[in-house]
Amino acid sequence: MRIGKNLKKFLLFTVALFFAATLFIKVTKIYNFFGINRADTPEKVVALTYDDGPYPPYTNQLLDILDRYGVKATFFEIGRNIEKHPEIVPMIITRGDELANHSYSHKDMMFKPNDFLVSEIEKTDKLLKELGVKQDSISFRPPWGRRFVVLSYLLSQMHKKLIMWDVDSQDYESTHTAEDIANRVIDNVRSGSIVVMHDGGGDRSKTVAATETIVKTLQSKGYAFKTVSELLK
Ligand SMILES: [Zn+2]
Predict the structure, then answer these.
(1) pTM, 2 dp
(2) Based on the structure, what is the number of domains in the chain?
(3) What is the pLDDT of residue 20?
(4) Whole-angstrom distance, CA of residue 184 vs CA of residue 200
């Protein structure tokens, strides 16, 4: 009798756990809790993304390299840096690259009040739109990719995509050479990959050098480059 009771309890627990897990998966899908890491496509296309700019001279140098190879990328910019270097935003628009939002002050967004989260997102959107960004829905990436369910929910309410990555270049590691950065990206990309690099936050000359190698090598392997929005279409 005792075993039967325990078995019943165990079965009830398993069923409850199953429903809770299903509900959790549904909710995370609806609110895109984890964000988008890559596009589901068999095509050899990749999106290069740069965080933490605009930041001269590196953003400018990257734009020149991308242009030289006929490649488009996506720049997740910080509002505060846009205020310091507003002239770079129209430059990015003119060249056909995509602008996206990387918060206003690059503060950790984990477990912060809703007001703070919304203002960090809206302030940067406003700056981007004032400088000519026409997109209805500007994509968002939180600082360090740190997100939690409330942020994901707010973004879905604001009709914004939460963009993460599946290939981390680790260009922020000071010991990594330009070659290390390039090889890490080249060895890890696959169809639909989103690559994260940085055009701001310090000396990014290694990222600039790595970008040229990445673009040249991947183009020779048959890869095309798209902005995040084009990749996810
Ligand atoms: Zn960042």
Answers:
(1) 0.89
(2) 2
(3) 87
(4) 20
